[in-house]
Each structure stands twice: as C-alpha cells, then as structure tokens.
Amino acid sequence: AISCALAAVAGLGALAGCADLNDTGRAALASRVAAYAVVNDQLVQGEMVLYPDRTGTLTLRHEVPPMANVTTVNASANSASVPIGSTVLTSCVGRLRYTASTLGVIDLRCNEGAIADLNMALIGDTRGYGYGQTATGLVSLVFGMTPVEARAHLTVPRGRQLVERSESGGLDLR
Fold this sequence. Notes:
- The protein is about 20% helix and about 40% strand.
- By secondary structure, the chain is an alpha+beta fold.
- The strands form two sheets. The chain has an eight-stranded antiparallel barrel. The chain has a two-stranded antiparallel sheet with strand order 9-10.
- Strand 1 (about 30-40) and strand 2 form a beta hairpin.
- The termini are far apart.
C-alpha cells in the first residue's frame, strides 16, 4: 500500500513537471509585440503575447499623472488625455483566441468596468487590428505595428489626434 501511494505521488509530481515544462516551452515560442488601443476615448498601450497554440494575452496600461487618487476627471485636471467627466482608465487585459486562420476574438476587460468583445483580423504573422464596443463607447486595437502604422487603424475621438512620442516611442492622445 505504501509503495502504491509513493508511486501515485511520484506520478503526480511527474505530471506537474510536464505541465511546467509545457508552459515554459509555450512561453519560449511566444511572440511579444507592441499593442495600442483606444477604449472609451482613452489611449492605453502595452503588449500582446501570441502563442503557437493560436491563443494570446493582452496587457495594456495608461500612465495617469498623480492626482491624489481621484477617480473622476474634471475640466481642470488632465483634460488633454481623458475626456471630461470620464472615469480614469488605467489598465486593460484580454485573451485572444483564433476563430479562423486570420480572424479571432479578443475578450477585453478594463479596470473602470469596460468590457468588450473585439473582432480581430491578422494582417501578418504578428500584426493585426480589432474593433468592438463597450457599453459606453468604441474600442479599436492594433498590435505588432509601429506607432505610425497604428495611427491608421485606431479610431480617434472627434477633435483629438494621436501623436507619436519622439523621446520614448509610443503614442499620445491629444
């Protein structure tokens, strides 16, 4: 009985080791590319990780200037980057799954409660774009593109423009 228990424990340990090895191999073969999105008239940027099993993860952030932990922005604070009266969007995460050879769906969730299903299209092995809608606005996303290329696919709010940052790369919404 003891030898059966030891064999079972050893078997579970081997399976756990295989799972860790599989995750390590999956991460080693993944492609990491820059990603930009406009969600409810606010810009977030970060990284899309594309895995060989035709899935992916998305992590986006927006650097918010310190404002003493205020969650709603008014006309006098940060009006260049966040629409007046909007909740500050600081981060979004998402999961990608392919639905066809060059099409997929991204389940996007953001810190201020925005949720969207984006229809995504690949235009290269690690480049693509997606569009969707939250309960309060539009979402546009690009990944694997330079900031200049991204500007062509992102939906910009009326009266604002995407500007490429010269010093650090990336984009600003002004």
